[in-house]
Design brief:
211 residues; globular; single chain
Length: 211
């Protein structure tokens, strides 16, 4: 069993990374081989629309761009489960995660029939969205969640999401111009709720590793 995690946050020790770490640790405890990839540590771009992956008689499910993401995509398709995480920036996932999903989605998408896929394997997926807004406002992003998860349907496995809301962005809010936030409330919620988020992430990682 191979479980990969893709961190779409520029913070390698932030909320998103913590959730992915909890999920990976639980998967490893369940006997899985695990790998974490931090997208902001790689040099790559989004899809360049070269269509090399769509040529007749060509190799399927391979991105022909010569950069640091292409080998990661190969390992993703060879895994059994995929954990992804991204903060929500201006109503969407991070730019690096968007580029990753473009590349993954296009090489697995079929142009032969609507809604088809060329990837014949099965990779179960879970996506962790971290956001600064309160839980009651998360529904405003439903269309974005659906669009983000769409490329993962090409992997042929289960697809689920987990929302981590009202996150704490700074260790010390007094050092930043952020008067619109109640720093004490943010910290109190982080101390009370974030451990529950970590436990939920761990359960997802354990469950996918045992699937």
């Amino acid at each position: 069993m191979k479980v990969m995690a893709i961190n779409g946050s520029p913070r390698e020790n932030g909320n998103t990374a913590a959730l992915l770490g909890a999920a990976l640790d639980a998967a490893a405890s369940a006997g899985a081989q695990t790998e974490l990839v931090n997208l902001y540590g790689l040099k790559y771009s989004g899809c360049l629309s070269c269509f090399a992956c769509k040529r007749r008689g060509g190799e399927k499910c391979r991105c022909f761009l010569d950069d640091e993401l292409s080998p990661v995509l190969e390992r993703v398709l060879a895994s059994d489960a995929l954990l992804l995480g991204s903060p929500v920036y201006f109503g969407d996932v991070s730019g690096q995660m968007r580029c990753f999903l473009e590349r993954l989605g296009f090489i697995t998408l079929s142009y032969e029939r609507p809604g088809g896929r060329v990837f014949t394997g099965s990779v179960d997926c879970a996506f962790f969205f971290t956001m600064n807004v309160a839980e009651k406002y998360a529904a405003m992003y439903d269309a974005m969640f659906k669009n983000t998860l769409l490329p993962l349907r090409n992997l042929g496995g289960s697809v689920e999401k987990y929302l981590c809301t009202d996150t704490m962005q700074f260790d010390d809010y007094s050092e930043y111009e952020a008067a619109m936030f109640n720093a004490e409330a943010k910290r109190a919620r982080h101390e009370e709720i974030f451990p529950l988020d970590l436990a939920a992430a761990a359960e997802i990682g354990r469950r996918l590793a045992q699937a």
